[in-house]
TrEMBL record:
Residues 51-88 form the ChsH2 rubredoxin-like zinc ribbon domain. Residues 1-32 are annotated as: Disordered. Pfam families: OB_ChsH2_C, zf-ChsH2. Transmembrane segments: none annotated. Residues 8-23 have a biased composition (Basic and acidic residues). Residues 90-156 form the ChsH2 C-terminal OB-fold domain. This is DUF35 domain-containing protein.
């Protein structure tokens, strides 16, 4: 990756300087330490509004306001991934989505996922357009899942003050 480019959108031709180290690999371990969790986000100044909204039960997406674009995107980026406009703001999503694809996870050695198996990792299509990686909850019969299944957002507190958006059938 060329130095000095935005770490969130390394494809961005504007070469915005991102913060240092966000996606750099952590120190290699032979096995995960017991106190390490792999399910919690690392909020920073840019993503703080997203996590604060999630804690209040709102799902935010980013929308471009450039003429002839107007597209929404997710995950959040500072510039539009379609047209590179910086005229992008947070917007509350409807929370409605449809199921695109999924996988029932029966084994995950990264804590704390091992204590949660089986769970359903999914990719959903938000009503506003963006595709989002998430988890399906309240899913009693994974065999009954099908593409296009109508979903709605829900929220789960994973640690004190850390809430993540998930989805369930509606
Ligand atoms: Zn755009």
């Amino acid at each position: 990756m060329p130095s000095g480019r935005c770490r969130r959108c390394p494809e961005c031709p504007k070469g915005k300087k991102g913060e240092k180290g966000r996606f750099e690999p952590s120190t290699p371990r032979t096995e995960p330490a017991m106190d390490v969790r792999f399910d919690l986000p690392e909020a920073d100044a840019f993503t703080r509004p997203y996590w604060d909204a999630a804690a209040e039960g709102r799902l935010l997406i980013r929308r471009c306001h450039a003429p002839a674009c107007g597209r929404a995107h997710h995950y959040p980026r500072e510039c539009c991934p379609r047209c590179w406009s910086e005229d992008v703001t947070w917007e509350r999503a409807s929370g409605r989505a449809t199921l695109y694809t999924w996988s029932v996870v029966h084994r995950n050695d990264l804590p704390p996922f091992g204590a949660r198996v089986p769970y359903v990792a999914a990719v959903v299509d938000l009503a506003e357009g963006p595709r989002m990686m998430t988890e399906l909850v309240d899913c009693e019969e994974p065999a009954a899942l099908r593409p296009g299944l109508p979903l709605e957002v829900a929220f789960r507190e994973r640690a004190e003050g850390v809430t993540v958006p998930v989805f369930r059938a509606r």
